[in-house]
Amino acid sequence: MILLSVQGLGALYTVCIFVICVILVFGFRLARIGYRTLGKKLPPEEPPKQKKQEDPVYFLVERKKKRVKPEYSAPRRIDFK
How far apart are CA 5 and CA 37, in angstroms? Predict the structure, then answer.
């Protein structure tokens, strides 16, 4: 008894070959990246430098002035024509 037809087997083999190729390509890329990093060494960490005391900076700040309240005149009547 044949479980899959010929076209079904062809599609199954195509999907399997595609998955195997994708795995091989990404595996090769990851292996190449890993091989490149084998010879590299991280630079040694430099000891922290002591920061010299800098002169303080003073900013001149002007105080906020109280806003003058505007004086309004008496309301005028507007006539629409």
Answer: 48
